[in-house]
Design goal:
38% strand; Acyl_CoA_acyltransferase; Aminopeptidase; alpha+beta; 7-stranded mixed sheet; N-acetyltransferase activity; globular; Putative beta-lysine N-acetyltransferase
């Protein structure tokens, strides 16, 4: 919980009375991500005060089962559930909507989300024994790769909550429990993924894939996920999870093929390009 990011036109990551909170205008929400103290009443008070002050539409956070009831009685709802998200404890993504329009999800959208999940879960592991072609160099990325990573992010993302196109920001991430994995072809970084490591709670989150436009649709994310999964197992962490755009067939299928289980859907949660997207939560329990 050391990072404090506050740049103009981006969201903010800061600690408020022991709670790590991501908030700002990009996603127009408060997201409490980690906390030092299990004073859930204080967390509820602080996030509501912040959301009302900044006029945010949504509050979302991760809480262990021991604190769930305190949030439910205050009007929060469960949107996703991950066994062993916390060390030896089930975790819940809980939310409160300060603007009811943001909570709305049409019946047609719900049907599409369920269709994507159904198709993803039906996908077979027909390529599980295939290796990444020799032309690609797949590995954990280091400081020397950050310039190319910055360039790839510029190609991949029109909007983002944090300055991931800035090399200095990427350096800060490497110094604060984030890891990057990627594949090169002909000395060009063509795909990468960002992973946040939480040793205290024994979990890791795959945050985003950046894919060069010329290399989309080639199943490269499957191989990168293989590499990430191997690394997380080697670290001895219990749980690997991700939030995936609910209408993205490709990435939902990638996680399903890797053995991940759907944990729920976060409604109108994340700005992707120019619109708020519903995000499917996928998880994989390891070393259990």
């Amino acid at each position: 919980m050391k990072m404090k990011i506050n740049r103009m036109n981006f969201d903010i990551l800061e600690e408020i009375e022991g709670t790590l909170i991501h908030h700002g205008p990009v996603n127009n929400r408060v997201y409490f991500m980690d906390f030092k103290y299990n004073d859930f009443d204080k967390i509820i008070t602080n996030v509501n005060r912040l959301a009302n002050k900044k006029k945010y539409d949504k509050i979302i956070g991760k809480v262990p089962e021991s604190g769930l009831q305190q949030f439910l009685v205050k009007g929060f709802k469960v949107e996703a559930k991950i066994p062993n998200l916390f060390k030896d404890a089930t975790g819940y993504f809980i939310s409160e909507y300060l603007n009811k329009k943001r909570e709305y999800c049409s019946l047609n959208t719900v049907k599409i989300i369920e269709s994507v999940k159904k198709i993803a879960l039906a996908a077979t592991l027909d390529n599980q024994n295939e290796s990444l072609p020799l032309a690609y160099d797949l590995r954990k990325l280091k400081s020397k790769d950050l310039e190319r990573l910055s360039d790839l992010n510029k190609l991949s993302f029109k909007t983002y909550a944090f300055p991931i196109c800035e090399i200095e920001y990427l350096k800060e991430c490497l110094q604060n429990n984030y890891e990057f994995y990627g594949a090169y072809k002909d000395s060009k970084l063509v795909i990468s993924a960002m992973v946040k490591i939480d040793k205290k709670e024994s979990n890791a989150e795959v945050i985003d894939f950046a894919i060069h436009p010329n290399y989309r649709g080639q199943n490269l994310s499957f191989y990168v996920m293989n590499k990430i999964k191997e690394a997380i197992i080697e670290k001895g962490l219990n749980t690997l999870y991700a939030m995936v755009r609910s209408t993205s067939y490709g990435l939902n299928i990638t996680f399903a093929k890797q053995g991940f289980i759907p944990g729920g859907t976060l409604i109108n949660n994340t700005l992707v390009e120019n619109s708020l997207e519903n995000m499917n939560v996928w998880y994989l329990n390891l070393n259990k």
